[in-house]
Design a protein that fits this description.
424 residues; mainly alpha; 4 domains; two-stranded antiparallel ribbon; 19 helices; DUF4371 domain-containing protein; RNaseH-like_sf
């Protein structure tokens, strides 16, 4: 069994590989009925189709080991591609490490892979460094060429991958201090630590050891901040509690941006209609369907000219406004793309999925949800970006939050009626 975090579903590995599309557990949909999962697995495990797929899997494995199958001839190419992607990720990780270590911004105003002759002032440091390396490195040069020629769909250069690469570097230590010479508050990244255990005790020891090696006394600390993970903010045995036991003046404040996103996520998850709405936008449905292959994406681009469809961000709720905006202002073009895709495929399941999604995104409830969530997420996006401004004062941030709360109260009373007018 395999589990997909993106789709929140489980799959049977051999049935998925050997094409049992007529069963949920072997299709791209997967099984997410957790209440009846046990009964479903027992029934599936004893089915003839599953046993045939298991037999094919064992035969393939034995054939590869004995070098007696056609698939064995493809293994060198598979290994070559695997090594190529490792080389690409190694270079991208090096760029992430360089930018973070030098306290440099990653992103620009317009993150597009332009040609070398075009200006790259607004592309962002991350993409500019990718292009710089590509001038001298054949691996990255070939990768960028494939991205520009649209011969590959996943290129791992977009902002979501940048965030994932940062998280992969695990524990990062950032120190904020007051510079008595300039009377400014400074913030510097000390570095990344590779940790073997994520327990509160281990993380605390890693942190203390690193500070001692740098000659920084923990007793001079007057504050600490982390995300809202239980191992970090735990009141009884979290990292913040262990640090407070060493230095009672190191008061703890959770990360405001992370708390903000948790509130938004919990608020939306409490509403069945919201979960259904965002699930249709991304999880196994609209975006996943159209981004499933370069051919499908080309059909979409032929109809959608302005705003490209975007996947939903799992960590930044305010970024979902771009996903909602692309559908809100181009819903008729997206429907045309779905019709075109259905007419130009022989895959019966794909045809059915296209018709199903087209029907769902043109329902009254979905269109009204588009209007409502676009209004809300637009306000949330403004607030989030304002809070991340390093020069914004706390009192001003609180004022903006109060204004947003008042706007939300008013929108709860009058926003639905205005959304109905816009929807028409």
């Amino acid at each position: 069994m395999i589990y997909s975090q993106t789709k929140d579903a489980v799959y049977c590995f051999p049935c998925r590989i050997f094409g049992l599309e007529n069963t949920k557990i072997g299709s791209s949909e997967g099984v997410y009925d957790w209440k009846h999962l046990g009964d479903y697995l027992k029934s599936h495990e004893s089915s003839r189709q599953h046993k045939n797929c298991m037999l094919k899997w064992f035969n393939l494995e034995n054939g590869l080991k004995s070098c007696s199958t056609i698939d064995f001839l493809a293994q060198p190419q598979i290994e070559q591609d695997r090594q190529r992607w490792r080389d690409i990720l190694e270079r991208l990780l090096a760029i992430v490490n360089f930018l973070a270590s030098h306290n440099l911004a990653f992103r620009g105003h317009k993150e597009k892979l332009k040609s070398d002759s075009d200006s790259s002032e607004t592309s962002g440091n991350f993409i500019d460094l990718v292009k710089l390396i590509a001038r001298f490195d054949p691996v990255m040069r070939l990768h960028l060429k494939q991205v520009k020629d649209k011969t590959i769909n996943d290129h791992y250069i977009e902002k979501n991958t940048q965030n994932e690469l940062i998280q992969l570097m695990q524990l990062s230590i950032i120190i904020r201090f007051f510079d008595t010479n300039t009377a400014e508050i400074e913030e510097h990244l000390i570095g990344f630590l590779a940790v073997e255990k994520n327990t509160a005790e281990s993380l605390t020891n890693y942190l203390i050891t690193e500070l001692e090696q740098l000659g920084i006394s923990l007793l001079n600390c007057r504050g600490q901040g982390y995300d809202n993970g239980a191992n970090m903010r735990g009141e009884k045995s979290g990292v913040q509690k262990r640090i407070l036991e060493i230095n009672p003046l190191a008061y703890f404040l959770p990360c405001g941006s992370h708390s903000w996103n948790l509130i938004l996520g919990d608020a939306a998850s409490s509403c069945v209609q919201a979960k259904s709405f965002f699930g249709l936008l991304h999880s196994t449905r609209l975006y996943i369907l159209l981004a499933g292959s370069s051919q499908r994406w080309a059909i979409l681009n032929a109809h959608v000219k302005s705003l490209s469809l975007k996947p939903l961000s799992e960590t930044r709720w305010e970024c979902r406004v771009a996903s909602v905006k692309a559908v809100k202002y181009q819903i008729s073009d997206i429907c045309d793309a779905l019709k075109d895709l259905a007419e130009n495929t022989t895959d019966c399941q794909l045809v059915s999925e296209c018709h199903s999604i087209e029907k769902e995104i043109t329902t009254y409830e979905f269109v009204v949800s588009l209007v409502i969530w676009y209004d809300i997420l637009t306000k949330i996006n403004v607030i989030s970006k304002m809070w991340q401004n390093g020069h914004k004062h706390l009192d001003v941030a609180i004022q903006h939050q109060d204004r947003f709360t008042n706007w939300l109260d008013n929108y709860r009373e009058n926003g639905f009626q205005s959304s109905l007018v816009i929807e028409r």
